[in-house]
Amino acid sequence: MNFKIIATTTFGLEAVVKRELQDLGYENIKVTDGKVEIEGNEEDIANLNINLRCAERVLIKFGEFKALTFDELFEKTKALPWENIIPEDGEFPVDGKSLKSKLFSISDSQAIVKKAIVERLKSIYNINWFEENGPKYKVEVSLLKDIATLTIDTSGDGLHKRGYRDRAGDAPLKETLAAAMIKLSYWNPSRTLYDPFCGSGTILIEAAMIGKNIAPGIDREFISQEWPIIGKDIYKKYRKIALGKIDHNVKLHLLGSDTDKRSILRARDNAENIGVNEDIQFFMKDMRDVDLIDNYGVVITNPPYGERMGEQKEIERLYKDLGKKFKDFPTWSVYLITNNEKFEKLYGKKADRKRKLYNGRIKVDYYQFYGPRPPRQEEK
Question: Model-level pTM?
Answer without folding.
Answer: 0.94
